[in-house]
Amino acid sequence: xxxxxxxxxxxxxxxxxxxxxxxxxxxxxxxxxxxxxxxxxxxxxxxxxxxxxxxxxxxxxxxxxxxxxxxxxxxxxxxxxxxxxxxxxxxxxxxxxxxxxxxxxxxxxxxxxxxxxxxxxxxxxxxxxxxxxxxxxxxxxxxxxxxxxxxxxxxxxxxxxxxxxxxxxxxxxxxxxxxxxxxxxxxxxxxxxxxxxxxxxxxxxxxxxxxxxxxxxxxxxxxxxxxxxxxx
Length: 232
Prior knowledge:
The chain contains seven helices and nine strands; from the N terminus they run E-H-E-H-E-H-E-H-E-H-E-E-H-E-E-H. By secondary structure, it is an alpha+beta fold. Strands 8-5-7-6-2-3-1-4-9 form a nine-stranded antiparallel sheet. Helix 1 packs across helix 3 and helix 5 (about 135-145) packs across helix 6 (about 185-195).
């Protein structure tokens, strides 16, 4: 029997794209044409900032989140080609962002291992908040109050075993993971507002963490900044 050798790519980033429900498969096919080997699609909900729609209870839109491991070169190509093909520059067509990722190796330098939010290469951040189902709206409300434009909610499950349980019964409470992409200047304020309003310092109320974003496509904040700077 012949051995099949599977090629291994160097993973420099995790490329994320958030598109309307039903579009992720098309995006993944195009990504594979660019050289992506695989991707994972998650179901989620986006939020629309509108007083009228909020009154009507129509502020949530169905979304898909596609995650692709990528090398630095592939990441740059994905941003360029997918953004052009699927018109991320137009409102509500989709966004993409990349989170830097480094594989720990003995040969890698300490500089490569340390990825800091203070690095000047990163102008955006991704705030992840994980809370019990039903608290995502509170999280989005807090984030908006601190300057965020909105976020994307991913439905999931937690797991655990109660400390005083005689039988090892698994508990799987439903969880919401909220993703908020924002500029680095706003990130600390938004994080602190979410942490305070949702009382995440209390056990069991949830967790929050922030990751740097190395590249973005389709962000409204970025388009606004470019218009202010006189670019198209």
